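The material for today's practical consists of a large collection of protein records. Getting from the letters to the tokens is the skill we practise here. To make this concrete, we reproduce a full record directly below:
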Amino acid sequence: MSFSKILISWYSVNKRNLPWRETQNPYYIWLSEIILQQTQVKQGLPYYLTFIEHFPTVYDLANANEELVLKLWQGLGYYSRARNLHFAAQYIVKECNGVFPNTYKTLLKLKGVGDYTASAIASICFNEATAVVDGNVYRVLARYFGIETPINTTEGIKEFKALAQELIDKKDPATFNQAIMEFGAMQCRPKTPDCLFCPLQATCIAYNKGNIGSLPVKLKKVKVKQRYFNFLVFQFNNETTLLEKREGKGIWQNLYQFPLWETNTNVSLNDCTAFLKSYKHTKGVSFQLSQYNDAPKIHKLSHQHLSVTFWIVKVDASANGGVPFKLVHEYPVPILLGNFIEAFGFN
């Protein structure tokens, strides 16, 4: 039995029952694929269900306020996915008259859609024989064929794509693509692959050479940047606080945060007091300052590590543009701030 037939046979018995596998609606498939980028199924599933409930059609998503989209996305991270999702929905409605692109090439025109997502939608919804290559596929192919080319290089990307394209079942590309991804997620796992009961064991090069753990090969990541964030949590007359919208192309674009003072290192209570004496909202005004977390909280992103301190600033005065405590929960914020808001209360 061929490689593809073995995978499809395995999939028919072992596949998980997931809502996006019960439809060929490209809108639903697209939603699921974007949500599951950088996200495990168990984490992404409730978000998928929430989005379907709030935005049952691409028109609903296109017409939604971006802040609502970001709020519903809160906790998933990589927020550019949500912004691109919203932008692409508007493109489909305005430029495609609400008709979803139905080929690999036209799907690539959607913002936030790359080779993998276009291949998944094209094969699952439109039966186009274009192979998906994600982390699971890299792992299965690298181990089974004993490929040592780094997967995060131009050479590796081309090699694995070509191989996957050669292996795909041309008559049933949708099932093959889903089968190989599911196999990587459930059978050929990163750290604890189930080699003992693997249907590919006899012909798997990595298994027979004893180097399962070293494949796939991935070059070391770029150096992680260290940043120091001091969030100023104002309490004006114990009624309102301040929130600001993050602009630019950095992390958390278009999400809200407490006023941020970024420094070159962690700072002390005295340092923060001195800063606030000349800050626009506290200059010439008496205030009480306290440090919320005893030690800076480390928040790790893909290429950045944030050392975060929350400073509580009580001011016996009112502020223009202050947000009432009871409304703070309604703003879309990074999960780091969402967890703080939940713990702090703001009642």
